[in-house]
Task: inverse folding
């Protein structure tokens, strides 16, 4: 018969391999930050420059496969709860496009970012 420690280790390993453990940790972090966020202090309006910076950070995280970190970032930028939580607003679905803050839920088009930043893309490896 397996010990409790062995069962815990197998369960943790299985959840890590399926990617569930990282997702759960990201959701917990986002919920903790949302609980600590002071709703009485309004956020500043989202400037064009900050929108581009946020998108660059999001692209960096997604390019490097930090998908759980990216999901926490987007939840914080959009002032939302993550999908699946009891307080996730229906208006924040990907169909909605943007949130109250103006940050798009769906990433901006890469060509748009290149144009706005006056950058160029290396055709060999799709790097900017």
Result:
């Amino acid at each position: 018969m397996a010990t409790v420690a062995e069962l815990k280790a197998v369960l943790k390993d299985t959840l890590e391999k399926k990617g569930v453990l990282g997702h759960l940790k990201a959701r917990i972090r986002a919920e903790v930050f949302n609980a600590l966020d002071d709703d009485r202090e309004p956020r500043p309006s989202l400037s064009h420059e900050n929108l581009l910076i946020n998108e660059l950070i999001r692209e960096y995280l997604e390019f490097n496969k930090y998908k759980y970190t990216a999901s926490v970032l987007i939840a914080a930028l959009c002032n939302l709860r993550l999908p699946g939580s009891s307080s996730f607003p229906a208006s924040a679905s990907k169909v909605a496009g943007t949130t109250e803050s103006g940050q798009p839920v769906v990433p901006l088009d890469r060509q748009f970012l290149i144009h706005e930043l006056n950058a160029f893309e290396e055709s060999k490896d799709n790097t900017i």
Q: What stands out?
A: Helices lie at 4-18, 20-36, 48-63, 67-77, 110-116. Residues 20-36 form the longest helix (17 residues).
